[in-house]
Amino acid sequence: MPEGTRKLGVLAIAGVDPYQEKPGEEYMNEAQLGHFKKILEAWRNQLREEVDRTLNHMQDEAANFPDPVDRAAQEEEFSLELRARDRERKLIKKIEKTMQKIEEDDFGFCESCGIEIGIRRLEARPTADQCIDCKTLAEIKEKQMAG
């Protein structure tokens, strides 16, 4: 992934600058764990604020339109918002699961093979629980099962 893309993705998630590894630094030391905890907390807070905004918007905008077309348009808008919030609710649960892994000192290692996931992959996807090789293999298997 190009450098600018990765950095923008991280900033978009939580407004936290990418972690700068130091030469010889131990993987998943306190500084790294603190960095990812900060990203996850900020991301979770952003998602929660979005849920609150949606709730307020829906309460403020809810109207019983006499025209069926207007009513249908509003229901479709609300439906799309609710689907987005449902995805975000699931993401919040995944973020909280990841934060628990940090607390248990089990963060940053592949659940399938046990190797390091890697700082750059975690910067791009802080909730990643598999290394890129295991994730790629799982996606290939999933496509084969579906097709």
UniProtKB/TrEMBL annotation:
Domain Zinc finger DksA/TraR C4-type stretches: 106-138
Example of a GO biological process term: regulation of gene expression
Coiled-coil regions listed in the entry: 44-105
Keywords: Coiled coil, Cytoplasm, Metal-binding, Zinc, Zinc-finger
Keyword Ribosomal protein carried by entry: no
Top-level taxon in the UniProt lineage: Bacteria
GO cellular component terms attached to this protein's record: cytoplasm
Compartment(s) where it occurs, according to its Swiss-Prot or TrEMBL record: Cytoplasm
All copies of domain DnaK suppressor protein DksA N-terminal, residue ranges: 32-102
Zinc keyword on record: yes
Zinc finger (dksA C4-type): 110-134
Pfam families xref list: DksA_N, zf-dskA_traR
MF-aspect GO terms: zinc ion binding
InterPro entries: DksA_N, DksA_RNA_pol-bd, DnaK_N, Znf_DskA_TraR, Znf_DskA_TraR_CS
UniProt record similarity statement: Belongs to the DksA family.
Role: Transcription factor that acts by binding directly to the RNA polymerase (RNAP). Required for negative regulation of rRNA expression and positive regulation of several amino acid biosynthesis promoters. Also required for regulation of fis expression.
Quaternary structure and interacting proteins, as annotated: Interacts directly with the RNA polymerase.
NCBIfam families, A to Z: dksA, PRK10778.1
PANTHER family registered for this protein in UniProt: RNA POLYMERASE-BINDING TRANSCRIPTION FACTOR DKSA (PTHR33823:SF2), RNA POLYMERASE-BINDING TRANSCRIPTION FACTOR DKSA-RELATED (PTHR33823)
Protein name stated in the entry: RNA polymerase-binding transcription factor DksA
Species annotation: Shewanella pneumatophori
Lineage summary: Bacteria, Pseudomonadati, Pseudomonadota, Gammaproteobacteria, Alteromonadales
